[in-house]
Amino acid sequence: MRCTFMAALSIMALMAIGALYPNQTFALDADDAPESVEIESLAELYQPVSFDHALHVEMADCVECHHHTTGQQPVDPNCLRCHAQSTETESISCEACHSAKRFYPEDLKERNQPELYHIDKPGLKGAYHLNCLGCHQQQGGPTGCQDCHALTKRGEQLFKVSIVPAENESGHDTHQ
Amino acid sequence: MKIKKLLNRRTFLKGSLAGSAAAVSLSRSPEAKAATFEGYPDSMGVLVDLSRCVGCRSCEAACNEEQQLPLPEKPFNDFSVFDELHHGQKRRTDETRYTVVNRYEVPGLDHPLFHKVQCNHCQEPACLTSCFVNAYTKTPEGAVIYDPKVCVGCRTCMVACPFYIPTFRYSSAFQPRIMKCIFCYDTRLKEGKPPACVEACPQEALTFGRRQEMIRVGRQRIRENQGRYVDHIYGEHEAGGTAWMYLSPVEFEEAGFDTSVPKEPILNYVKDFLSIVPMVLTIWPALFAGIHLLATRKDGIKKQQQTEGEAEK
Ligand code: SF4
Hints:
The complex is a heterodimer of chains A (176) and B (313). Chain A is mainly alpha-helical and 176 residues long. Chain A has eleven helices and no strands. Chain B has a single domain (44-269), classed as Alpha-Beta Plaits. In chain B, 29% of the residues lie in helices and 12% in strands. In chain B, strands 8-1-9 form a three-stranded mixed β-sheet. A two-stranded antiparallel sheet of chain B has the order 2-3. Chain B has a two-stranded antiparallel sheet with strand order 4-5. The longest helix of chain B is centred in the last third of the chain and has 35 residues, at 278-312. The site of iron/sulfur cluster has 15 residues of chain B, from α2 and β3.
């Protein structure tokens, strides 16, 4: 009995340490990123994106994707109104702030506070696309849908790809 | 909970269409007569941001599947549809597609804009008020839905809709069926889930929430991104207010919006239309009285069958 109690305690302690430490690190681990790109509802439609975090670290400051959460000062004056002095937050992962279940009752309820400023915070999928695509346009990164993620069989079914081969898809730049 | 006919001042249309008071046998509760009805307070809405939409057509694909619509002519990742013109018009919603995304090249912009079209789910829908057999319902959640069983296929709603949304499928001459976006009412909205198109959109160009909240979000987006949007939320007041509303970086007409849609419920304008064409008033009453009898007969038969069914149990 005592043994199991101790075991449970030490597991809890380990979990607590585990919960603390990744948050102390500055950058997301490049190898971990692909998993976090998978969004429940679409993971079945698109193959996972392998996001090269190391590559992106070279190209952009943390603040450009992680906003105020890494302790860097935001550039956007709207953010500075409150986050000029913000320090590093407990978690800097996208998912920690951007809901993967956007628009579902819980998400809507959370926003339903009269004093809340962040009523327009995008969900996880929206956050990725709005942030990535915006920068890719400016920097000449890939912008076609399938430049980043290929359709799965299920995705092909949804998009009715079998009807005629879509010749213009691969070259389609959504922002030509 | 759901109310069908909302406004007393609207009943003139029903009256004039049906021709005789006898044909109008609809009961109305006194509280439903409020002349200032401005929609259900907690009804849901969608804010469409044209500056975010990239024309990926994911929303079209999701809609097709959710509503079990027929196979499209071209796959949803075929972007040549944006070049299609039908009688000089861009693609429109019809009985095979409840939503379409159209591309607009705007002079002075270095990229095209995309405008998604679907039912706007008016707060005070002209289709509903013009339908004399009560086929339409505005649900408290905000969806404008219809009952195919009572529709007689008269197409009045098609004429009444300022956005040209309701279309028909005639699988047989006696089985007309209204076909239009229902806000995914049956499968999603009712359960508090967002519509399929909203969930599918990668860009969150479609933002779903309480309509009141969507107006707040729209105002905030305009305010905090100075110069990015024209200072107007299309649908906040158009047609008396719609559940689907729009933000645009350019004047709305440049992206294919009808900015001549009046800022009040459409019904008054239906009246104008009818008074300009008095023929309609003289011929339709007789016609509709007949159709109405047919429709109520159908209801009667249904009730009869139900009672028979219960008797058998
Ligand atoms: S899914 Fe979103 S971004 Fe894609 S076409 Fe539809 S509204 Fe536009």
